[in-house]
Design goal:
Length: 293
């Protein structure tokens, strides 16, 4: 009987301590983010904003990252086992945004892995990203950080999309985001492969103007504009995940699927193209004039 009571006591302590530790660490991280925002606001009002250089903000966010990861580990090691959706919700509440976090789980054999990504916002157009893989060890079953990638998507939103979790293609996923405050919504997409102890970048497309990512029946489809200035066309690229990696279904040097982007609905193609050419010439003129000045 005493052994039974002892076991129940251990279970009760684990159920209570795990969430409490997680809430303490994530709560501390949230306070640190709020303090940084308050300091920036006060510095702007007093004319001392020069202190908040990109390097300084990045260093502050790196400190906050430690508390966030501590909270994630406490969540994963709680009893009963946490779900990926719960981890994502906790990280979402950290900054009350949906575009700064992605979480999913992947089970291979007797092991379960959690892939976690988030972006900590330090200024209007500044953020620091972190992506990590957590796995349960064979010794005691507790979760540990197995691999991570620091700031591979700086100053961008962040989301994750799982591509595969099987013996043939391994654990492969996409991390992607667009620049904060970017009028052209330039998209960066990076594919990672996780082999148990390392996160390796295996493919990427970067700074695609007005980029959009969709996954259709396992096919990666990217739509984006050909340039930042007219005349422009909308391009589409398609890729497929294979045992050899991510391979193009249509090579980028082949004639792309493209169409002119109309400036105003209802106008004729001839007029749209004429306006695009005129705008392009005007942009080039202003650029050359700026260089001369």
């Amino acid at each position: 009987m005493p052994k039974r009571i002892g076991l129940l006591s251990v279970i009760w302590i684990a159920c209570w301590v795990g969430p409490a530790l997680a809430q303490a660490a994530l709560g501390r991280a949230k306070e640190m983010l709020q303090d940084l925002a308050q300091e920036r606001s006060e510095a702007t009002q007093t004319g001392q904003e020069a202190k908040f250089t990109p390097a300084y903000i990045n260093a502050r966010l790196s400190e906050i990252e430690v508390s966030v990861n501590s909270g994630i580990l406490s969540l994963l090691n709680r009893t009963p086992t946490v779900r990926a959706l719960e981890v994502q919700q906790e990280l979402r509440d950290l900054q009350e945004r949906d575009d700064t976090v992605g979480v999913f789980s992947c089970g291979t054999g007797s092991q379960t892995f959690y892939i976690v990504g988030y972006a900590l916002i330090g200024a209007i157009t500044s953020s620091r990203s972190w992506i990590g893989a957590f796995g349960s060890g064979p010794e005691d079953g507790s979760f540990k950080l197995l691999a991570s990638v620091d700031n591979s998507l700086p100053d961008k939103t962040l989301a994750l999309q799982r591509l595969s979790c099987d013996a043939d293609t391994g654990n492969t996923f996409l991390a992607y985001g667009v620049n904060w405050g970017d009028a052209h919504s330039r998209l960066t997409v990076i594919a990672y492969s996780f082999g148990g102890n390392v996160l390796r970048s295996v493919w990427s497309r970067r700074d695609l103007p007005e980029g959009r990512l969709t996954i259709e029946h396992g096919t990666i489809v990217l739509n984006f504009m050909s340039s930042l200035t007219p005349p422009w066309v909308e391009l589409q690229e398609s890729y497929q995940l294979t045992p050899k990696g991510i391979e193009p279904l249509r090579k980028t040097d082949d004639p792309p699927v493209a169409r002119t982007r109309w400036l105003t609905p209802g106008i004729s193609p001839e007029l749209a193209n004429a306006v695009s050419v005129w705008l392009g010439r005007t942009t080039n003129f202003h650029n050359s004039l700026r260089e001369e000045l």
